[in-house]
Write a structure and sequence with these properties.
The chain has 352 residues and is an alpha/beta fold. It is 39% helix and 18% strand. The two termini are 18 Å apart. The protein binds 5'-O-[(R)-(carboxyoxy)(hydroxy)phosphoryl]adenosine and zinc ion.
Length: 352
């Protein structure tokens, strides 16, 4: 009998639901991005996001079931992001997931969103050799994980200030480019000179696997408006923005790759996978594919639909947890912060 799990994701600004069969067959993957809604504020406004989730969640879940040609009672379980994220947003997806579980007597599986990104390589390529090194880079998180086995990962390093996506979003705002900054900078950088501007590559202490992007953002700010000097009369020209965007993006990519190289050294990992919105970046993908220091590792770059926030990755990790016997109570709480140990909390299922 196939195992069908519905995954529901509303932790940030994507309302998403998907059905995954047997842990790797994505039967449906419906994602509604609120990016247009938040553009005018250049960032996600929590209250606006949770209201939009409330308006859409039922149609998104219904669509995911319809696309998968399944009725709710044909599901084996419902997995839902319950951490980390904006609590008002998490609660919308959780209320929907709990309602389905209650009505159709299905087990509920609470999933950590960052861990779902960590496991998205396994969803894209179930035969990905383990252990693997996983980079999660998004608007809210930038961290490196050692994925020992499904459901067990160890965090090797994380950002001490801004996330990589946040640095791109804020950099784009400084350059007058639209939100979301990652894709805007990627587009603006096409044809630009990556070496035109020297930006810092903050690598922190020797051997550190943490990240820091706030200095990069400040460097761009000072380049555009040097402190102590009169404010420039005009914004940078299109050609200047092109070079600035290319140089800025290159600095972000350089840091991510330098940390991946460091983390891969002496760890005996067999694969390298990337996840999170920044994993969609074309320059990062191109550089990773050509990197001579990482060439011995199996490189897993999930399709775009599994990189940014999506329900399939929640259902994917949900399947791993379900198979391990993990089930959550119906009074499961929303939690703003991520799990720190990367271990699935396993509670034995009570027989139904
Ligand atoms: O994973 P995600 O969809 O949501 C969060 O959990 O944050 O990631 C969103 C982030 C934003 O910062 C956005 O600018 C960035 O991912 N992003 C990109 C690209 N597409 C989205 N960054 C670089 N290149 C892209 N093509
Ligand atoms: Zn995410």
């Amino acid at each position: 009998m196939p195992l069908n799990i519905l995954g529901v994701e509303t932790s940030c600004d994507e309302t998403a639901a998907a059905v995954v069969q047997d842990g790797h067959r994505v039967l449906s993957n419906v994602i509604h991005s609120q990016v247009e809604l938040h553009k005018r504020w250049r960032g996600v406004v929590p209250e606006v996001a949770s209201r939009s989730h409330t308006e859409r969640i039922l149609s998104i879940v219904t669509q995911a079931l319809e696309d998968a040609a399944l009725e709710p009672d044909e599901l084996d379980a419902v997995a839902v992001t319950h951490r980390p994220g904006m609590v008002g947003c998490l609660l919308v997806g959780m209320a929907a997931a709990k309602a389905i579980c209650w009505r159709f007597s299905k087990p509920l599986i609470g999933v950590d969103h960052v861990q779902a990104h960590v496991h998205s390589g396994l969803l894209a390529e179930p035969d990905m050799p383990l252990p693997a090194l996983c980079l999660v880079a998004s608007g809210g998180h930038t961290a490196l994980y050692h994925l020992h086995e499904p459901g067990r990962s160890e965090r090797l390093g994380t950002t001490r200030d801004d996330a990589a996506g946040e640095a791109l979003d804020k950099g784009a705002a400084l350059l007058g480019l639209p939100y979301a900054g990652g894709p805007s900078i990627q587009d603006a950088a096409v044809g630009g000179d990556r070496a035109a501007h020297k930006f810092p590559r903050t690598l922190l202490d020797k051997g550190s696997l943490d990240f820091s992007f706030s200095g990069l953002k400040t460097a761009l700010l000072y380049k555009l408006a040097p402190p102590g000097k009169p404010k420039p009369a005009a914004p940078p020209s299109a050609a200047e923005v092109q070079d600035l965007a290319a140089s800025y993006q290159e600095a972000v990519v350089d840091v991510l790759i330098a940390k991946l190289r460091r983390a891969a050294q002496g760890r005996g990992v067999r694969s390298l996978c990337i996840g999170g919105g920044v994993a969609k970046n074309a320059r990062l993908r191109e550089r990773l594919a050509a990197d001579p220091h990482l060439g011995s590792l199996r490189l897993v770059m999930p399709p775009m639909s599994l990189c940014a926030d999506n329900g399939a990755m929640i259902a994917g990790l949900g399947t791993i947890l379900f198979r391990a016997g993990a089930v959550s109570p119906l009074d499961l709480d929303a939690v703003a912060t991520a799990q720190t140990d990367g271990k699935a909390k396993v509670r034995r299922r009570t027989p139904r």
